[in-house]
Amino acid sequence: MKTMQRHHWTAIGFLFGALILAGIAARDFLRMRTPDLIIPSDGLSRTGLLSEYAPDLAGTNGDTPYYLYDSRNPGPTMLVLGGTHPNEPAGFIATVVMVENLRVAQGRVFVIPQACLSGFSATEPLEGYPERFSVPTSSGERIFRFGSRGANPLDHWPDPLVYLHRPSGQQLSGNETRNLNRSYPGRSDGSIMERVANGIMRLLETERVTLAFDLHEAAPEIPIINAIVVHEKARDLGGMAVLNLEFEGLQYALEISPQNFRGLSHREWGDGHAVLPILMETSNPIQGRLRGPTDVDLILRGVDIRYQTALEVGRMRISYDAEGESLAKRVGRHLAGISAVVSAYNEMYPDSPLMLEGLPAYTELLSQGVGAFLKPPPPVQP
Amino acid sequence: MNIIIQRAAIVLLALVIIAGIAPAQGGKKFETPVLVTSAGQSADVTLVSMLFKRANLAAKPAPQAKAGDLDNVKTLVVVPGFSSKGLGAAGISREDELKRIKQLLEAAAAKKIPVLMMHIGGKPRRGQQSDDFCKMAAEAANHLIVVKQGDEDGFFSTIAKDAKKPIDVVDKIADAAKPLAALFQ
Amino acid sequence: MLYWIYVVIAGIVLALVFRELVRERQWRLQLALAIIVIPLLLRILQVK
Questions:
Q1: pLDDT tens per residue across span A124-135
Q2: Chains B and C touch (3+ CB pairs under 8 A)
Q3: Interface pTM (ipTM) of the complex?
């Protein structure tokens, strides 16, 4: 038998060290699979899973919960999607605030806070994002995951070199195969995100959704921020909403969905169904390329030292508020946008209004913070 | 001497009265029907069309209007602002859009159709991509209405001042309705 | 199917890395090989 030489011992030692490091990392990675706590308001009618509309999703990490608020009074049906990109927290948290506060007096509302549920279980490689952030409430902290832009690679591996969108044949970078907002209309036998997209399209069709929102964020340097993007069918609706928001002191750009950019919610929802699609964007410094320290404070306060410096030395060619883009402000903008679009819809269709109650106003979110509109966490069991 | 002074006073009074009337007559340059077009394909043209609707003024939105669309048009409204999504939706390049606007403005000038420029997109519709469109529209316009945020650097004010054109700078989009209505009275 | 093919490929690569780790005499290169084990192992075990 060969005797153990010195390099064998060092190999064992380094391997042991690697296994310890892998164990420590694994503990963190597995913790990201713990579901986020969402506590619905009394207005909730029922909750369910997207697989009710797309059975092929059952048992997968794409099978995400929906929350239904049914007034039982005849009226339009609305869908609000958060978490299409789990690294865009304002969209997710805006829908959580909705779920935890909403009451519907006329019509129905479906809320899906984590459309890309798979993406909440992993962060984006090489970005240095925190894995979670906490929002203080009246008694205790609510902790939420901060995920990645697309589905967890464990749910779809490998990425192709080129992502071919079906049915259009449009070609995009291979990693877009895990991007829900490039996967519509989806397929029941496609990738996990195509199946989720298909499930959402089935929901739109089965429930005859009239108004559908997809809430997003983008880096400050992206031209489409603080914007409402509409399918051309919803052009007038979007325009009215933007003018209504102006009266509240909130500026939004209105953008029309490009017809030749396929796979996006505001394009495919509108092309495939009678629904009026609205996508909204806020400005999120943690996604910015110029950003400095990438930490929880940047998610919550949205004040970045590098953007501040660029503003001070006059090198800023983009919009950036020196006071920062706080989570409260961004969530407030999303909820104000939804309210404005619903108001505009009710003006255009007064015989069949959608009546929502319980949602905080933009000014309330700014003054009291997001935590004031989240339920406190349940007490920890001894 | 008294007669000379009296006659001078009458002439002076007449001049003052004429000067008082003249701006009111000269201010009414804009009439309906109106054609509203975009310069840069931003969706701001939709918002401007809504402002006209709220003011009960007949205006036809035509984001990609060409020279041939100017028949029977009394006023051309140009809404500058670049949008990559808008150009993508329209299926045209930035260069083609610049060419279209240039030809449209030349046709309007040839037909003596007054041009009103309305920049309502604020800072997002300014900058490297938008300013070519903004400059072209502002220089061809007879009157400018601008939301303040889009003129923080005095871009439009300077063009208006140098060319001695009237400009209305408003705080927000909805405030543009007032000067708009006044122009068409 | 392609997913599991890639997991098997990762397994083969892991085995090769392990073999080189044991054979390598320079400790600096052994350290590098040990670090490479981490992501391969986590992917095979469906952790990350």
A1: 999 999 999 999
A2: no
A3: 0.94
